[in-house]
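User: Let's play a game. I give you a shape written as tokens, and you guess the letters that built it. Ready? Here's round one.
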């Protein structure tokens, strides 16, 4: 019984850790996208000013 609980807790912890890693990866991707959109907007604004 106790061993089953330990196994389940370990599984939940491992799954949570993987999920957190995926979220951190997604956040990094979003930051890169936001940066690129910002640069694209700046370029578009420069063209509009001409």
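Assistant: Ready! My guess for every position:
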């Amino acid at each position: 019984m106790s061993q089953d609980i330990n196994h389940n807790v370990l599984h939940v912890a491992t799954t949570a850790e993987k999920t957190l890693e995926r979220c951190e990866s997604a956040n990094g991707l979003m930051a890169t996208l936001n940066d690129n959109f910002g640069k694209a907007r700046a370029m578009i604004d420069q063209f509009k000013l001409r």
